[in-house]
Amino acid sequence: MLKGEVEVGGAGLAPFLELWANTRGTANVRGLAPINDSPLYLITTNPTVKSVQDLIPSGRIAVPAPGSIQGLFLRMLADREHGNARHLDAAMVSMTSVDTMKALGAGDSSLSAYVASIPFNQTAMTLPGAREIANSFEFTGGPHTLVSLFVTEKFKTGNPKTVAALAAAIDDAVAFIKANPAETAEIFAAASKGGTPPARVMEILARKDVTYTTTPHGTMTFATFMSKLGLLKTLPATWKDVYWEALHERDGS
Fold first, then answer.
1. How many CA atoms lie within 13 A of 54 on its CB side?
2. Which stretches within 30-112 are classed as H helix?
3. Where does a domain end: 88, 109, 140?
4. Model pLDDT for residues 164-187, shown as the tens digit of each residue
């Protein structure tokens, strides 16, 4: 994106906030629209792990990357339960969700836990012995954005009609998903070329803890913690600093 090779980017809340902070005064990346509010689960299939306090640095905890929102949530838990946000850093292993699910499904006992996002948290909970030992919504006191789309100031300024049309299309898509879940499931299943059957998509859409919304939530909770760890060069004064003005009239956080 910063080289001009990508015009619209998307990322989890933590790497998006880091990109925002790192480009202030230069590319000025800001959020165009979130996609959904969705919780992260800390899941274990290890019978010896009863709570976060049972996790130790010598264990193996699967996250997509230490800098992901999953990695940040694990650091939040370590800060609360162990008094040191980096207590479990040595335990983090970077694994794709697909590889993690394969490992857990095969009974890999070397993994102590897995920080999972939609749709993998739902699937992981069906594995033998799987238990949720922490939930990010409960930890942060309410729903939070999982993924946001963003653009640079140069692209937004140079392409105002395109940016406005894209934002409107995202709003329309969210409204369509809410109003037409069955048709949405069929469309997604067709796009996946058989990879995800409509019934599976319907299960995901029916979840009560997932909301498809373009209003930001939980921004400052994560930004404040990242600033505390030195992961943000600048702490935003408000969530509106992070997102473009088209969203500023919304009841975000």
1. 14
2. 69-82, 97-105
3. 140
4. 999 999 999 999 999 999 999 999
